[in-house]
Amino acid sequence: MNIMLFHSVYGLRPAVHSAAERLRAAGHEVHVPDLYEGRTAETVEEAREIKDEIGTDELLRRAVAAAAPYSESGLVYAGFSLGAALAQNVALADEKARGLLLLHGTSDLADDASVDDLPVQLHVAEPDPFEPDDWLTAWYLRMQRAGADVEVFRYRGAGHLYTDPDLPDHDSEAAEATWKTAMGFLETL
Length: 189
Description:
Elements: E1 2-6, H1 14-25, E2 29-31, H2 44-54, H3 56-67, E3 76-80, H4 82-93, E4 99-103, E5 119-126, H5 133-146, E6 149-156, H6 172-188
Helix pairs in contact: 3-4
């Protein structure tokens, strides 16, 4: 499987490289663009400053540009938090997308969004301050209405970015459960 993996608001940190290596070890080709052009953050405040300085529109443009050389072959889009939101936006606009793996995040979608049975898997903490229950319910219904085949997995007690071992949110049990389920999902595509 050909996978485009987008980093979180913290930038291209070791956890993203580790995730890419895990996917490569399972036989996938993985592309990991650096949407922050070398910058990373140690705190959420620093991360938001970088994101705001670059801007959401520019980050989406960079994500589209990173995917463009590979999209003809049919990509699985994946991402962490902010990267998941970007992955969702790019995948919904790519008619050849083969799947969407969202870790810790979602994005709003246009009322006219339409996909043809796009397989989607979402993994989020429960509760998650950035993905509250009401939002997730509305997101799920809108994704289904758009034609996506959606699965949602919640991890009680985990922090928002629980798969990143270098952040305080890390939850090793939830992270391993996520990766086991995600690998199974990728094998079905």
